[in-house]
Amino acid sequence: MPEHPPVSTRLRASNEGKTHDQPCRVVFVVIPLPPVSNGSKRDCDHTALGLDGVAPDLVDLPGEGTDGGKPWPWSPGFEIQGVARQNCVPIRPAVLDVRSEKGLQLNQQTLSMRLERVAAHVPADARLADIGSDHAYLPVALMRRGAIAAAVAGEVALTPLRSAERTVRENGLEKWITVRLANGLAAIEPGDGITAISLCGMGGETIRDILDSGKARLSGRERLILQPNGGEQPLRQWLMDNGYRILCEEVLRENRFDYEIIVAERDGPVTYTAEELYFGPLQMQARSPAFLTKWQRLLRHKQQTLTHFARARQAVPEEKAEEIARQARWITELLN
Predict the structure, then answer these.
(1) Is the entire prediction scored with pTM above 0.70?
(2) What separation in angstroms does the CA of 84 have from each of 30, 184, 202, 297, 303?
(3) How many CA atoms lie within 13 A of 303 on its CB side?
(4) Is 80 exceeded by the pLDDT of residue 269?
(5) How far apart, in whole angstroms, are the C-alpha atoms of residue 222 and residue 235?
(6) Which of 94, 174, 242, 261 has its CA 20 to 30 A from that of 287?
């Protein structure tokens, strides 16, 4: 794979009937549109913003060439409305803190808050393996920012694989992002030189099983960026058992769900207590508002569960009741 993506995006520009290629760095901001008057749905618009001071006379955006039969004029900062496919990822320049005229960071349009936080933990110039990549949004966004050198997007199912291939192709990143149909870490090949692995949006036990079954593919020098949907305790247990130290943890809430991000690197023997495996060793120290709010909600849920157990007509397995009661005690102690 080449080491770096192209710095600019090439737009087709026309002048007096002559067509030539004009290098111009742009960013596409995707804007959903409301239904039209007859109730039918519309695609989303995208806006092209010049960031290099390059001002070709006319610009042909993909899929649309003219506006009302007239060519679109172009000048730095001129906004051009075109049609983008719903699954098209906005193109991101390798420029830090790019802002629109309203002062909003344009990178907010690229990834969900959850994936933005995952992206923040990927080391600069990493060679990333995104396992379970789905639409390949994460590696594509990072590549467009110039944040990584190369990536592998792995998918075990054919439909999301095709989606990932389409996203990579539509962003012109086939030379830098390889999409592979493979089960878990089997997507990683020795020549990839992977330095970071992301596994996001799966249960913690599923992530654990993927790591465990693919241990032969791990060199021990990779950073693991993990975003489990629940099941954090068994995942932390695997990390401890296999010599991975947790470097960073965070909790965020998005769309009424709590998500945890766990970043780890292999660092020899490490020991965590049962409570640290349950809550997260660094989370227990930081005690962020999002972390405390999450466990306040879970405490109420476990207390309700214990009440239901007490009222249940059928006997609840004693082991299960004791486990939930123990967790409720831990949470109460944590919050106090």
Answers:
(1) no
(2) 8, 32, 29, 40, 48
(3) 10
(4) yes
(5) 17
(6) 242
